[in-house]
């Protein structure tokens, strides 16, 4: 697996936030759907696409557990809830976080500017 599975339970600070459980449940259902797709890939490209989708889904889900502030949590809950369970929109959100928010953790490929 390309990433750590989503936990079935969210932290208590998330459980008491309006809409958070239903938003997280959307991600759990998406993860389950993607895992089913991975179980029967048509070809190598389909498998790679499913692995990438799983990564994007899990990135969004893990923000529920690791977001550093209540304001950040409220934002992620709003974003996920606004997707209304649309698989592609949720995956696009995960890709956005992967491409931009997590970019700071990648190592530089070249000389450090002087």
Provide key terms for this protein.
mainly alpha
Task: Describe the structure in brief.
The protein has 114 residues and is mainly alpha-helical. It has one domain (15-104). It has five helices and no strands.
Note the main sheet: none
As a percent range, the share of strand residues is under 5%
Computed CA radius of gyration, to the nearest angstrom:
15 Å
Number of helices: 5
Q: What this model shows, in words?
A:
The chain is mainly alpha-helical. It has one domain (15-104). 66% of the residues lie in helices and 0% in strands. The chain has helices spanning 12-15, 20-39, 44-66, 70-82, 87-101. α2 packs antiparallel against α3 (44-66), α2 (20-39) packs across α4 and α3 packs across α5 (87-101). The radius of gyration is 15 Å and the shape is globular. The model has no long low-confidence stretch (mean pLDDT 87).
Q: Topology of this structure?
A:
Elements: H1 12-15, H2 20-39, H3 44-66, H4 70-82, H5 87-101
Helix pairs in contact: 2-3, 2-4, 3-5
